[in-house]
Amino acid sequence: MDPTLDYMARICHCTSIAELWDIHCEAMNEFGFDRLVYGCTHFTTPTSLGPREDTLILSSHPPEYVKLLYTDDELYRHSPMIEWASKNSGACSWSWVRENIDKLSEGGLKVRDINRQMNVTAGYTISFPESAKRARALMALTARNGLTQDEVDQIWEEHGKRIETMNHVVHLKIMSLPQQTDRAKLSARQREVLEWVGIGKTNQDIATIIGVSAATVEKHLRIARSKLGVDTTAQAILKISYLNQIRSPHG
After folding, report:
1. Do 221 and 233 meet the contact criterion of CB atoms below 8 Å apart?
2. Can you give the residue ranges of the HTH luxR-type domain (predicted)?
């Protein structure tokens, strides 16, 4: 079987994001990209990428790099290539940073300096087409140490269409799988009561179905709303729907 078709088949049969990520990182390493970051949020605003807690971030970078850019001060918000991706879709060479150095913000220059310190200097970023108005997703492919941007551009010239297609397939597959962000994980019971609400059951209906009091049902809903960072049960259902964490309570 053609290696790319074999890869596609393996991705299509994945049942978890962790399994998918391992397969994809291995495949991208074959092209010279040994460190990847994938980010996806369904909760952007006109002026922001939305809360970090609501963003799915997958990374094969060393933990210290992730901590520097994505955890402590959320410097990733100032990344030059994220700035590019916020306004564009498709694939972009990191030569864009060099060509637009005079337009970078103070935060963008700081991210560039950190990237240099961590040998994140050559690569490509793929910005995926929006699946919904507030959705945004991208993949940053870092080339292995020793490769220059010119050499990476040559790799892309030869294999770019295949690499971009493989990343699009991964993105679409992720969109179909349950996603876990940094929000506190819902318990099975909290998810269940949201699922019953989602098909139109009242608190008293749910209490009868699962054998608890209506007050207990409301307690589960209150905790679920708090964990998800929303004010209403309708907002909670919408949020976990975006993350593919809700299904029919009968299933």
Report:
1. yes
2. 179-244
